[in-house]
Amino acid sequence: MSDILGRVMEEQDPLRKLLGKIPGFKGYVDRVNRRSADKLLRETIASRFETLVQRISALQRDLVSQGGLRYVDDLEGAVVKLRTFIDRVRTASYGYAGFFDAVKVNSEELALLYQYDLALFESSEAVERAIDNVEAALGTEGLGAAIRALVGESQKCIDAFDKRVQVILQNQGEEA
Fold first, then answer.
1. Can you tell me the distance from the alpha carbon of 124 to that of 53, in angstroms, rounded to the nearest whole number?
2. Taxonomically, which superkingdom (predicted)?
């Protein structure tokens, strides 16, 4: 997480660095940098999950060609959940902009949100393993169970994102 923020910070132009020395402006620059880092993180997470959805689509094509039509809809359940997750990640406010404007998010709460974002990023590994298991189970009796596990991992991604939103809203409620 801090690598992405650091990457954005390194890409600052000299003018921003100079303005960062002006009292009061540093906080504004930091907030802009957080928004940029957040945008980069979200796009990275969404792209990673798009790749996983493409793998599932390829599995669906394999199932169709092998006569496994009864599992195609089950796999579509995972695709729908992952697409929902991707859409939520992509359309959430960058840098917690709306919340920064209405509510002060302190650094501890921001660190907690970054932990949730890191968990979202790492959840792609669990989904990837579940897809691997589905691939390995093709043509076996374990295919249904492997697909259910994949759908379950996909739902966990949505649940993790919802918990992140709850943290933000809880913070907003405490500030009011």
1. 11
2. Bacteria
